Amino acid sequence: MSTVLEITQLHNGDIVLREAKDEGEPLLRIRFSAEVRDMLGDELVRVAEAMIDAATEFLGEESVPAHEVANPAPTIH
């Protein structure tokens, strides 16, 4: 059985990933500040899609135990 997921922009501007036809709690929520929403304009959903794609790709990579990582990625705040 496969699950169909959708990326949707809510009325409050949040971008969510959820199962299609499911109006319940989303699997993922991305909330941009008003400043970033204004800056991205029509590209807001495309940026959120790229973020979700990057996370999916990251999670799909072969897992390496944390103690075996020679140079962990820097934390970006």
Report on this model:
- The chain is an alpha+beta fold.
- It has one domain.
- Helices cover 31% and strands 17% of the residues.
- The chain has two helices and three strands.
- Strand 2 (15-19) and strand 3 (28-30) form a beta hairpin.
- The model has no long low-confidence stretch (mean pLDDT 84).
Write the layout of secondary structure elements.
Elements: E1 5-9, E2 15-19, E3 28-30, H1 34-40, H2 44-60
Antiparallel strand pairs: 1-2, 2-3
Number of distinct helices: 2
Number of domains: 1
Quote the average pLDDT.
84
* Sheet with most strands: strand arrangement: 1-2-3
Over all CA atoms, what is the radius of gyration?
Answer: 15 Å
User: Main beta sheet, described?
Assistant: 3 strands, antiparallel
Distance between the termini: 38 Å
Number of strands: 3
Sum up the overall morphology in one term. Answer: flat
Uncertain runs with pLDDT below 50, 5 residues or more? none
Structural class: alpha+beta
Order of helices and strands: EEEHH
Q: State the share of residues found in helices, binned by percent.
A: 25-40%
> Strand-residue fraction?
15-25%
